[in-house]
Amino acid sequence: MSGSAAARVDLRYRDTILSVNDEPVEDKSHEKIVQMMQQSGFLRLQVKRLLSWQTTIEKAEERGFGFGVRGGADFELPLYILRLYENEDKTRFRGIRVGDVLLAVNSINIANFTHQQAVDLIKKSYQTLQLRLRRGNGTVPALSRGFSR
């Protein structure tokens, strides 16, 4: 959430708070953790960042899987989620955001795939697509070599 306190300190979706002001929170309720944060004049959080996660999305009849990618080995970039099509139901993307990095498609590591190889793999999937992603910073790098995929 742009402009929020969480965004200002780079707290991200799927991060896990381990401690608040050096007090472990593993055995505490959500309400107690919120209370600890609200009562603190200064807040120090220990956070565990989820490095990657897996999700499955369903194919929409008219728009395919409803997202576009940029990058690939031919551009010396990882594959980024470039866009989520506006007319799609955002709940079907299950936390996927523009700028996230695509690590695997249907359990196939795509780290060394060209852009076209990755697109072909996605397109040949039938009704569901299993993705492994890493949270990006919300931006997608420009491409070198004058291409705009």
What is the topological layout?
Layout: H1 5-8, E1 16-20, E2 23-24, H2 30-38, E3 45-48, E4 53-58, E5 67-72, E6 77-84, E7 101-105, E8 108-109, H3 115-123, E9 128-134
Antiparallel strand pairs: 1-2, 1-3, 4-9, 5-6, 6-7, 7-8, 7-9
Q: How would you concisely characterize the structure shown here?
A:
The chain has 2 domains: 5-48, no CATH class; 53-134, Pdz3 Domain, CATH 2.30.42.10. Helix content is 15%, strand content 30%.
What does this structure look like?
- It comes from Oikopleura dioica.
- This is PDZ domain-containing protein.
- Pfam families: PDZ (PF00595).
- One of its GO terms (biological process) is signal transduction.
- This protein is an alpha+beta fold.
- The chain folds into 2 domains: about 5-50, no CATH class; about 55-135, Roll (Pdz3 Domain).
- It has 3 helices and 9 strands; from the N terminus they run H-E-E-H-E-E-E-E-E-E-H-E.
- The strands form 2 sheets. Strands 4, 5, 6, 7, 8 and 9 form a 6-stranded antiparallel sheet that branches. It has a 3-stranded antiparallel sheet with strand order 2-1-3, covered by helices on one side.
- A hairpin with a 2-residue loop joins strand 1 and strand 2.
- The radius of gyration is 18 Å and the shape is elongated.
CATH topology of the largest domain: Pdz3 Domain
Q: Whole-number average pLDDT?
A: 86
- Work out the strand percent: 25-35%
**CATH level-two architecture of the largest domain:** Roll
Structural shape: elongated
How far is the first residue's CA from the last residue's CA? 27 Å
Number of domain units: 2
Count of runs of 4 or more consecutive helical residues: 3
Q: Gyration radius, to the nearest Å?
A: 18 Å
Look at the structure and give the CATH class of the largest domain: Mainly Beta
Task: Report the sheet with the most strands, covering strand number, pairing sense and barrel closure.
Answer: 6 strands, antiparallel
Number of strands: 9
- SSE order, one letter for each helix or strand: HEEHEEEEEEHE
- Please give the share of residues in helix: 10-25%
CATH fourth-tier homologous superfamily of the largest domain:
PDZ domain
Structural class: alpha+beta
Unreliable runs, pLDDT <50, ≥5 residues?
none
Domain PDZ: 1-41, 54-137
Protein name: PDZ domain-containing protein
InterPro entries: PDZ, PDZ_sf
Pfam families: PDZ
